[in-house]
Every structure is written in C-alpha cells, then in structure tokens.
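To: structure desk
From: M.T.
Subject: fold request, one chain
Message: Could you run this one when you get a chance? Sequence is below, nothing fancy, just the single chain.
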Amino acid sequence: MSRLQVLHFGKYYPPSRGGIETVVETLCRGERESAASRALVINRGGPTKREVVDLVPVTRVGNVATIGA
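Reply: Done. Structure tokens follow.
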C-alpha cells in the first residue's frame, strides 16, 4: 500500500509566525507517522525556493506583487 500524500496550502510557513502558520506546521509535523506531508506557501522576499524545515518539505513560491494587503 502506498503512503498517503498530503499537500498543505498556506500563506506562510515558519519561521514566519502567526496562527495559520502554526496550524499548518503542527499538521505537517503531526502527520509524519501516517502521511507524507508537505507545505506550499508564499515566499515574501524572493523567488521560488524549496527547503526542508524540521523534516517537512516546504516550497515557498515567489510572488511578483501584493494587491490589497
């Protein structure tokens, strides 16, 4: 049986701090035993980059502009 794959979408991911960021981080870390979780979030200050934060694969997508923030 293949392992469950979960992709969490969020605005940001730690080290950015906030309520939703903490929830997404907690979900990703808590699902390690039963699922392969990863996060897809916005990169505030630059181009798209991929990294691993506390064993969680995180893709930070670069943005060109922010409208209505």
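Reply (cont.): Strands lie at 4-9, 35-43, 49-53, 56-62. Let me know if you need anything else for the meeting.
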